Amino acid sequence: MKKSKKAITIIVSLTIVIATVISLFVVNSQTNIFASDKTKYNLGVEAMNSSNWDNAIELFTDLDYADSNELLEKCVKEKGMNENADYKFLESISTSILKRYAKSKDDDGLESCVDYELQMLEKYRYELFYDNRLKELSTHYLEGLDMEKESITLPKGEQQLKKYEGTSIRFNTLKSLTDEYGLLKNNNEYMSEYYAKAEQQEKEYEMLKTIETDLHKQLGDDLEVVYVDETTYRISFHNHTDYTFNMLMGFTFYDENGTIIDTTEEYYKNIKGNTKYNLDFYFPLNAERFDYYTEEYFD
Fold first, then answer.
1. What is the edge-to-edge ordering of all strands in the sheet holding 260-271?
2. Segments in the chain below pLDDT 70
3. Are 275 and 238 in contact (CB under 8 A)?
4. DSSP letter, residue 2
5. How far apart are CA 237 and CA 30, in angstroms?
6. Residue 120 exposure: Cα atoms within 13 Å on the Cβ side
7. N or C: which end of the chain has fewer CB within 10 A?
8. C-alpha 45 chain-centroid distance
9. Are 298 and 204 spatial neighbours (Cβ–Cβ below 8 Å)?
10. For residues 224 and 265, what is the distance between their CA atoms, to the nearest angstrom?
11. How many CA atoms lie within 13 Å of 292's alpha carbon, on the beta-carbon side?
């Protein structure tokens, strides 16, 4: 039996209507999904800005919308750093640095400054950090403090290099903390006194190592001392380095029984690189022998 033309028209019309309804349903569903994702995203951002890390992480998880994946990663890190020692360390070291700088301006000695910082930061040797890089930097900074502390206990002549090494490590660690974590980046005093001088501190440490290696080869046990007059003797050496420095020589004099009879310090300025020098020093009449040490400085 043949379908009438009218029946065919009705079937086609129904098909079109059904297809339209399905299409509208799909579009509406996609719109609702889009609206739902946007709502979750906005709620997640709100939670993140309120430091509600758990809620933000829950909202951003499995949400593929805008930069939600990056924000999820940020929230996980922030949660970890807040719940572990990370931010407490950054707060403590900010306080210790500014306090140490204030103490140094009040002419507090190295030992007092180092002891204060160790008192503030010692506990972080044993604390858990979320951020492994921050833990590494905290360890480096404490190593620098340890070296400065150790330098105080060393014999004169050995103190300077150890102190410079510790200070170089401290300054370069602080620079990394500022570059990577924003430590005190808005504090002008810190930026000019610490951050800006990190490279110079490292350079001076390397210079001092070179100078001391050169001097110790010449001013060791085979030191040649030349008589000038009854109370003056002379030491000769050659500055083989390219660096200009100032040098303090401290002398301890003993009589024939090994009793200390005098101590003196001689300060020699502007010792230029690649130049030979004769250094005269006072020698007591009744002295039989002497010990000495050197310390090098830069202007």
1. 260-271, 245-254, 289-297
2. 1-35
3. yes
4. P
5. 86
6. 22
7. N
8. 32
9. yes
10. 19
11. 24
Q: Could you tell me if 253 and 260 are in contact, meaning their C-beta atoms sit under 8 angstroms apart?
A: yes
What is the reported pLDDT for 20?
45
Which tokens in the block code for residue 64? 């593929």
Instruction: Give the model's pLDDT for residue 148.
Output: 97
DSSP code, position 123? G
Q: What is the CA radius of gyration of the chain?
A: 36
CB atoms near residue 154 (< 10 Å): 13
Find, among 175, 173, 168, the residue nearest to 192 by Cα.
175
**In the numeric block, which tokens belong to residue 239?**
């500055």
CA distance 105 to 91: 22
Question: Among 260, 164, 180, which residue's Cα sits nearest to residue 212?
Answer: 164
Place of tokens 């150890």: 162
pLDDT of residue 105: 81
Residues 6+ apart with CB under 8 A from 236: 224, 226, 276, 277, 278, 279
Residue owning tokens 């103190």: 159
DSSP for 179-245, written as a single string: HHH-TTTT-HHHHHHTGGGHHHHHHHHHHHHHHHHHHHHHSSTT--EEEEETTEEEEEEEE-SS--E
Pair of tokens at residue 94: 């900010």
The secondary element (H helix, E strand) that includes residue 82 is helix 68-83
Beta strands at 275-282 and 260-271: parallel, antiparallel or unpaired: unpaired
Give me the pLDDT at residue 6, please: 53
